[in-house]
# Entry
Amino acid sequence: MILGGLIIAMLVLLFLRVPVAFSLLLPCLVYVAWSPDITLGVALQQTVSSVDSFPLLAVPLFIMTGYLSNAAGLADRLFQMLLILFKKVPGTLGFVNVFSSLTFSWMSGAAIADAAGLGSVLVPAMKKRGYDEKFALGLTGASSLIGPIMPPSIPAIVYAVTAGVSVGSLFFAGVLPALVLTLILCVFVYREARKNPLQEEAGRPEMPPLTGAIMSAFPVLLTPVIILGGILLGIFTPTEAAAAAVMWVLILSLCYRSLSFKALHGVLLKTTTTTGSIMLIVAAAGLFGWVIAREQGPQAVTEAMLQFTDNPIVFLLLINVALLITGMLLEPVAGLLITVPVLMPAALEFGIDPLHLGIVMILNLVLGLLTPPVGLVLYVLSSVTGASVQTVTRGTLPFLIPLLITLLLITFIPAFSLWLPGYMTE
# Structure
């Protein structure tokens, strides 16, 4: 009864557009006030302990890496190199769009940074070359979801800390699923290019030499080598890899002379603001998760699931449906912090690997970034391109098909998530 009241109160506050952190915190404070055996000091300890985590230090560092890459124009160098590489392929800018998101994901770790940094360049370029505006917007939004799956993924760090699994292992678990999503989006682009073969004829710009473009972008491409290579070789932890990535991007910015003091100040300000909002949600979710655990919420969910079905496939289908709905209401970090403590015990009972569950949960929740009412990527693309939110939404709807296909493949073929981490630990 108490558990149901807490969840209903949280949902009501969310529907009233109360910020997520306060929607989680306020019902818990009422619970603490009404419980004679809980002091405010205990509640404060649970709140603070949730952010007192060394792996979480990687979050602001990877956020800063993404913002620095945008401000220093590193994404533009990747874009120019890919444009030359795909210049003779039908659907050039469509493939450039997808692979720009793939390469930039090694530095950003978040869909919003990808959509903001690449959307302002890719969508106008695609419109100029004859692509339909809605297709350009939809493809940019869909490809931006590669970022939260491919390491260094901010949601992956949050999940790993909450679930108690290795951040490095979860990073490697996300590589193949991100490549699967990339491949399926490329098939979608190829299909569109076959339907509209003349759209590339309009306004082909003069291309600089390929060698020069590759040499210009090559130092940027070393970023994933530093991050994953350093973790794999045991040179540093994921958190230390985040610091190394920041230093590398700063060095590149100085070498290219592409980052002013004013831009650096803006990067620091945006990093601080984004980190503050995420950590406030993490702190509030820590108390919320403790209250849910105290009221035996995970046990109740596990018992209900086991009574409903003993089939892991059916369980995964139910998780997908529940998380898709959750993703429409909450941004991914908040969704993970609320659902992981509840779903993890049930998943373990069904024999589902925590790494596989993590990738499935992350992909489910990031799909909500393309669906109203939260749909943060929709609003970001609208802001950077000048298109209305309604136009962006209509453009993204067809791309939900390849995204859902990817989700089903990753859900029911655990090898996509588990093969690489298992291979790395052999």
Observations:
- The mean pLDDT is 84.
